[in-house]
Amino acid sequence: MENMNQKLKANKQTQSHYGYDHPREYNVGFIPHKSGKYRIEIDTQIDDVSQFSTAIQVLDVAREDDEVEIHLQSNGGDVNACGAFLHSMHKCQAPIHIIASGGCHSAATHILLLGDSFELADNFNSLIHNGASGAFGNINEYHAKSDFDKQFLMNYYWDIYEGFLSREEFEDMMEGKNIWVDAAGWCERAVARMKYFQEKVDNMQKEAQKASRKPRIKKAKVVDTSEKLVVE
User: Fold this and answer.
1) What DSSP letter does each residue of 18-45 carry, written as one string?
2) Alpha-carbon distance 21 to 120, whole Å?
3) Are 95 and 65 a contacting pair, CB within 8 Å?
4) pTM (predicted TM-score)
5) Among 27, 104, 114, 177, which is disulfide-ready with 108 (CB 3.0 to 4.6 Å)?
6) Tens-digit pLDDT profile for the chain (232 aa)?
7) Contact, 114 vs 59, CB < 8 A?
8) Cα–Cα distance list, 108 to 42, 47, 103 (Å)
9) CA nearest neighbour of 138 among 150, 130, 146
């Protein structure tokens, strides 16, 4: 029995670090028959930013004539870890196409909403809900962290879900209501979101045009008072 325990211990020490106290990094590949096309697979819970290490490098080096394809199926996870990947998606010069299947919940919806295009499998389903957080320390520190989280997540989530959720739905979600969406519902909301931002851009352009117009200045009328009016 002692020899067996020693063998198990030795075997554990020789195995990859990812199998125990560290999450597995997401698989990233290059599609050889399609030049400039990269494939990223996000297929587990999001626990740590290290899972995105190679994926973030790909997004940073991809150029306009490249293409990034993300295969997405995840229950979500750590918002901070996911935020690093979202930042790289924002900066990526290449178009990002997302193929989502199965359950894409919580933080995974943030990734899906940031793609340039998407396609959904028949079994696609999604949960949108408020995040989980916690605080430790003295009572005043606990309240300070809670107050910060409330306002921070309110702004952070609205930046993601604006146009996809109505303001009423968003406020209900922040109060704890779960919103479930299937493939048809997601596509319907995505179209509405596109129209919402198009109208927002149009209104901003109209306001900018109004602001750029030069104010009309009325010229003062010159009256010649050098001659006196003579009444016969």
Assistant:
1) GGTTSPPPPEEEE-TTSTTEEEEEE-S-
2) 33
3) no
4) 0.77
5) 104
6) 455 454 444 444 433 334 446 788 999 987 766 778 999 999 999 999 999 999 999 999 999 999 999 999 999 999 999 999 999 999 999 999 999 999 999 999 999 999 999 999 999 999 999 877 666 777 787 778 778 878 888 999 999 999 999 999 999 999 999 999 999 999 999 999 999 999 999 898 888 887 777 666 656 565 565 555 555 5
7) no
8) 9, 12, 9
9) 146
Two structure tokens written together for 74: 């995840």
List CB contacts of 94: < 8 A, sequence separation 6 or more: 36, 38, 59, 62, 63, 64, 65, 66, 67, 68
Residue type at 224? D
Distance, CA of 205 to CA of 103 (rounded, Å): 38
Count of alpha carbons within 13 angstroms of residue 139, beta-carbon side: 0
